[in-house]
């Protein structure tokens, strides 16, 4: 097959990030000297994917077109005979792109994982959280034989907030703020009795999430911004992580430079935003949305672990890979 083929038509390869078959297909076309246009579906909104599925009836990747001729995936491309492949190459060499061929999506359909780093509006109770963090309410308290470090008593919080001149809350308003801090997952209840989703302005102990001694990968400063929708957040994290991963995987897809990933500036963005998962609200999600959420973050967790901790050496280490805070 001639190298650096000049073509009138177009070869489109639809791909997703982190796909070995996609990489193999691109490598094969490169060896053949056939120019191609890559459409990475992770860079576009879901409608682009749906349009492709409606056309081909397939969701697996890659999907390869020579002008309007749908070849299939990598296995289909790899099993073509020399003559069959030559027919396809001749099609794009001699014929312009027909109206029936798929079009390259416009830039307006793109979704940018980098939007994860954009400034987000602060939660309306962020100042209360900051003031509570530095207050004298946070102490070690005893309940029975157990000590609860870095905790506070609910009734003391209500009194403190209602007397704080910076705010204009009466006792009822201060209690309502406590309920909101619990609902928005800035704090969590420590003692077991009663409903953990209800804020009780009595001797019940609570703790700021920032004061938890988590060992999970996404442990870190709790975001004071208005939280994103859980599925949106997990999907955006997955897309950005895959983009980083694609830069450090070998051309044959067999090795990954995890040290390079750990040093990548965009990986810092991923780690920062992953802390938002601590406040992700899953209780309002449907079963399908919950499944989508965990599927989206699974690969992120595995890549995150390998980049920060190295490959797990045994069963115990592997069991810790999926340790992540979602209250």
Automatic annotation (TrEMBL):
GO biological process, one term: intracellular signal transduction
Transmembrane parts of this sequence: none
Signal peptide segment: none
Residue ranges occupied by any DEP domain in the UniProt entry: 148-210
A Pfam family recorded for this sequence: Glutaredoxin
InterPro entries, per the entry: DEP_dom (IPR000591), Glutaredoxin (IPR002109), Glutaredoxin_subgr (IPR014025), Grx-like_ET (IPR051548), Thioredoxin-like_sf (IPR036249), WH-like_DNA-bd_sf (IPR036388), WH_DNA-bd_sf (IPR036390)
Molecular-function GO term, any one: electron transfer activity
Name of the protein this chain belongs to: GLRX2 protein
Species this protein is from: Branchiostoma lanceolatum
Taxonomic classification: Eukaryota, Metazoa, Chordata, Cephalochordata, Leptocardii
